[in-house]
Amino acid sequence: MSDPDVSRGEERIAIERHGAGDPLVLTHGFGDSATTWSELRPILSERYETWSWDLLGHGRSARPDSESEYSLQIAVTDLEAMITAAGRDVVLIGHSLGGYLSQYRCVGNLERVRALVLIATGPGFRSRAKRERWNENVHQRAGRFDAPDAALRMAEMHDDLVMANLEKLNIPVLQICGERDVQYHSALEVLAERVPAVESMIVPGAGHHVHRSHAPEVGARILTFLERLS
After folding, report:
1. What is the pLDDT of residue 8?
2. Which has the closest alpha carbon to 201: 216, 222, 183?
3. H or E element, residue 177
4. Cβ burial 80-109 (10 Å sphere, 16+ → b, else e)
5. Could you give the angle at the alpha carbon of 211 between the alpha carbons of 78 and 92, nearest 5°?
6. Alpha-carbon torsion 38, 210, 142, 188, what sign?
7. What DSSP letter does each residue of 49-70 carry, written as one string?
8. What is the pLDDT of residues 178-213, one digit of tens each?
9. Which of 51, 55, 192, 210 fits 206 for a cystine, CB–CB 3.0-4.6 Å?
10. What is the Cα–Cα distance from 44 to 26, expressed in whole angstroms?
């Protein structure tokens, strides 16, 4: 079922709520939308309340053209609004950029977050040179996504906040990656070494959208992980 939109100033963030139970906040990746959860969400909402939303500039949310409307920090503020809207302690589930935003929020503030599920994502880069190369690659992809070019600013990395503070993620963490999504395999190793309570899953034959192509396997693993939180 659809819910009233979460407002940020004059902009609107479109959300949907399904199921009942402890709340899960699902955040998609750049250039995607809440529809990316279409295969996984029904599995999760059989036991939990799922809150999926469209990042600004994506899906049914507002699509301003001004670069000043977009940044990673603004996206994290919108994620905070989702946590507040859920009304109770949540589990954050994020794919790609959505997973990075979830980590960014949690290394600075773990309040109201019970656990993290990170799908095909990483903690960013400690090296400034690597962050600059990342940002260059992001902008080289302008026009390839169903989002305003200005929205690319939310995918830029300008600090190492997550990478430098991984030890602060002292909540249960499940990270999932596809076997063919090799660019994120090193991230699995980094979190496994530095996060106090982390579990990892590599799905054979899967690529970057592992939660779509292998929803039954991913859903079953997430449910098992969530059941142990009780």
Report:
1. 53
2. 222
3. strand 173-178
4. ebbbebbeeebbbbbbbbbbbbbbbbbbee
5. 35
6. positive
7. EEEEEPPTTSTTS-----GGG-
8. 999 999 999 999 999 999 999 999 999 999 999 999
9. 210
10. 11
User: Which residues, listed in sequence order, are joined to residue 199 by a DSSP beta bridge?
Assistant: 174
The CA-to-CA distance between both ends of the chain, in Å, stands at 26
Domains in the chain, please, with CATH? 6-225 (3.40.50.1820)
Instruction: Indicate whether 146 pLDDT > 60.
Output: yes
Query: pLDDT of 14-54, one tens digit each?
Result: 999 999 999 999 999 999 999 999 999 999 999 999 999 99
Which burial class, exposed, middle or buried, applies to 182 when counting CB atoms under 10 A from its CB (0-12, 13-18, 19+)? exposed
- Return the number of other C-beta atoms located less than 10 Å from residue 51's C-beta: 25
Kindly state the tokens that stand for 51: 């809150």
